[in-house]
Specification:
The protein has about 450 residues and is mostly helical. The protein is built from 21 helices and no strands.
Length: about 450
């Protein structure tokens, strides 16, 4: 099982690291304020991802008739219809969005990005269907190859333009190649069918995922909008780069865990086997959160100077706090994946509501005080409340909990707390040594995860 897990993790990590490299290179190649403009494209792309989050990819893995060619063709047809509608939405909001961010001259770029959801919708669903048989390399290639091309085109784009347009055209090229590669690695012919019954069933399955995607859009991007509108493009560049550095490993883990464990959990008809796998999923997300925060506490400032240079030095004090935000958000990933395997797609949506409820407070704080740290404190509070809800829902609806999960969680929370103490006592060595000990203890507590990792078959 470790071999399959490493294949998925390495494949997803390769694609994500290449896109992280793209962000770092763009930040190096263009001025900081221009990178702030380029960071707003992430908001536009989040609109695309939000509109596409009906869970069609997960449905072809989770549904009993996911191997049926007609079912796959119907999902592909629905995906194309959804993609065209998403492109139209992005086209219509391009002007108002540019005006809201105070950069009306960029409206044409947002309009051009409306091509992205259409290109993404042309992806062949064989790359997801093959996950049912634990065949992952087509999906991984579809992520990694376009990401590599998106990096390679940066140098000629920087030579021709030298500003935020470098990111714009890199995104468009990546989207086009992703669709092409998905067809090259597919096994079945590509067919499009519009089946009203399957579309209705997909909407029933996917509406909580879509609602949660709206919430996630607000979670990840409302704060970018607040920072960009109220504090300017330079601060937005700092904040967005910090999000990129901490969110990238988080998304790699979340995506890899879903790729590997969703098929296993879906097939686990024995309640005891399902519970064992669920505990493994919980421990994996919790443990990774500890590694993320500890890694940023130890290496964050050094990495900023090495990768970004002196012009991003102002990011260093924010990095551990941003890592804690993402780490606490990871706590919700285990419950969400486990619930999804049982068709309970609304759990993630409910867990994110509390985070969203604090966004108006965050905006008011930024307007009144202009202190970005208060924004991060509120984000941690919102994610913590959401994590409590996520754990509670899985315990209540599926009966999954216990000390195997909570001891790992307690040790990881100690890692986070000690990393914060290190921020306020930078001359002392003991907080990071104590955090390392707490991290080792969390590994000891995650016994089920260790057993699963080295199990064969």
């Amino acid at each position: 099982m470790l071999r399959s897990a490493l294949l998925i993790l390495s494949g997803n990590a390769t694609a994500s690291l290449l896109l992280l490299l793209r962000n770092l290179l763009v930040a190096r190649l263009i001025p900081v304020a221009d990178y702030g403009v380029a960071a707003t494209f992430a908001v536009a792309m989040a609109v695309v991802e939000m509109a596409s989050a009906l869970g069609l990819q997960q449905q072809i893995v989770q549904a009993k008739d996911g191997d049926d060619p007609h079912f796959q063709s119907a999902l592909q047809g629905f995906q194309v219809l959804r993609g065209v509608l998403s492109g139209l939405v992005l086209l219509l909001i391009a002007g108002p969005m540019a005006d809201f961010m105070g950069i009306p001259q960029v409206a044409w770029a947002y309009q051009l990005l409306a091509l992205v959801p259409v290109l993404t919708a042309l992806t062949h669903f064989d790359i997801h269907r093959l996950n049912r048989q634990m065949v992952f390399w087509p999906l991984l290639l579809t992520g990694a190859v376009p990401a590599l091309i998106a990096v390679l085109v940066l140098w000629p784009l920087a030579y021709w333009f030298g500003d935020w347009r470098v990111m714009l055209y890199s995104i468009l090229i990546q989207s086009a190649f992703a669709a092409v590669v998905s067809h090259l690695v597919a096994q079945r012919p590509y067919r499009l069918v519009l089946d009203a019954a399957i579309m209705r069933a997909s909407l029933r399955f996917g509406w909580p995922l879509l609602a949660n995607a709206v919430l996630l859009f607000l979670v990840f991007n409302a704060e970018r909008l607040i920072v960009g509108r109220e504090l300017g493009m330079v601060m937005l560049a700092m904040f967005s780069m910090g999000l990129t550095l901490t969110l990238t490993p988080t998304l790699v883990l979340a995506k890899s865990a879903t790729n590997l464990f969703l098929p296993l959990l879906t097939r686990a008809t024995d309640p005891q086997r399902f519970r064992q796998l669920a505990i493994v999923v919980f421990q994996l997300h919790i443990l990774f959160a500890g590694f993320l925060v500890f890694g940023m506490a130890v290496l964050g400032e050094w990495a900023i100077h090495l990768l970004l240079g002196a012009k991003y030095a102002g990011l260093a004090p924010l990095l551990v706090w941003l890592a804690i935000v993402q780490g606490v958000r990871l706590f919700k990933g285990g419950p969400s994946t486990v619930a999804l395997a049982r068709g309970q797609t609304e759990n993630a949506m409910v867990a994110n509501l509390l985070r969203i409820a604090l966004l108006p407070v965050a905006w008011w704080v930024i307007v009144q005080d202009g202190d970005i740290m208060l924004l991060l404190y509120l984000a941690i509070l919102g994610e913590s409340l959401g994590a409590l809800v996520a754990f509670g829902l899985v315990w209540w609806r599926l009966g999954i909990g216990g000390k195997d999960i909570y001891l790992t969680l307690a040790a990881t929370l100690a890692v986070m707390g000690l990393s914060v103490i290190d921020l306020f006592a930078p001359q002392a060595n003991w907080p990071l040594w104590a955090a390392a000990a707490a991290l080792a203890l969390s590994i000891v507590f995650a016994a089920q995860l260790r057993q699963f990792s080295f199990r064969k078959g």
